[in-house]
Structures are given as structure tokens and as C-alpha cells.
Write a structure and sequence with these properties.
Order of helices and strands: HEEEHEHEEHH
GO molecular function, one term: 2 iron, 2 sulfur cluster binding
Radius of gyration: 13 Å
InterPro entries: Glutaredoxin (IPR002109), GRX_PICOT-like (IPR033658), Monothiol_GRX (IPR014434), Monothiol_GRX-rel (IPR004480), Thioredoxin-like_sf (IPR036249)
Strand content: 15-25%
CATH class: Alpha Beta
Structural class: alpha+beta
Protein name: Glutaredoxin
Family: Belongs to the glutaredoxin family. Monothiol subfamily.
Keywords: 2Fe-2S, Iron, Iron-sulfur, Metal-binding, Redox-active center
Length: 110
């Protein structure tokens, strides 16, 4: 994997407080796992940005290598890798995700 793709990924994570690397777009997810994480973040009413890893094969593999996590979607909050769909779902269901977002200063959309 090229150093450039890691710099690109790090740049996206740094530029967006809540960044979701997913299959598809926020308004048109292309897999059920990505759709579930979008649904959770939308329900929590927090601003988030997405990156469609299907648009670039190097990016699709690069994010897996970057995080050392084998699956997509991948959620980052304030630069911290949170996890994939199962972890995000579990954290949402037990209240940890909302608490983490609040702790990191991520507030609901105005």
C-alpha cells in the first residue's frame, strides 16, 4: 500500500470529527452493514462525513491496512478508530456510542 493512500486517509480522518468509511454514499449505502451504521448516526442526529471505498480499490484496501481491521464500514470519531458495524451497533444499543460522542464534543445538528 502506498504512503500516499495512508496520508489521504489520515487527512480525511483529521478533517472530519465523525468519519465513516463505507460502501456507497450516505444517502445510498451499498451494503447492509454500511446502511446500519448510517442509520445509527442519523438517528443520533450528529453530523458525519462519509467516504465511499468502492470508488477506489486502493482506498478500499488502504483503509483496512490503515486500521488493521478487515471489514468495512469503519467509524472514526475525533481521530479514534471506533470499529465496524457490530461494535458500533453494540455501543449504540448500550448507550456507549452516544456517551462517547458527547465526551468527544460531538453535538447534535442544530
Amino acid at each position: 500500500m502506498s504512503e500516499d493512500i495512508f496520508k489521504t486517509i489520515q487527512g480525511m480522518i483529521d478533517a472530519h470529527p465523525v468519519m465513516l468509511f463505507m460502501k456507497g454514499e450516505k444517502n445510498a449505502p451499498q451494503c447492509g452493514f454500511s446502511a446500519r451504521v448510517v442509520q445509527i448516526l442519523t438517528h443520533l442526529d450528529v453530523p458525519f462525513d462519509t467516504c465511499n471505498v468502492l470508488s477506489n480499490p486502493e482506498l478500499r484496501q488502504g483503509i483496512k491496512d490503515f486500521s488493521q481491521w478487515p471489514t468495512i464500514p469503519q467509524l472514526y470519531v475525533k481521530g479514534e478508530f471506533i470499529g465496524g458495524c457490530d461494535i458500533v451497533t453494540d455501543m449504540y444499543q448500550n448507550g456507549e456510542l452516544e456517551a462517547l460522542l458527547a465526551e468527544k464534543g460531538i453535538t447534535k445538528k442544530a
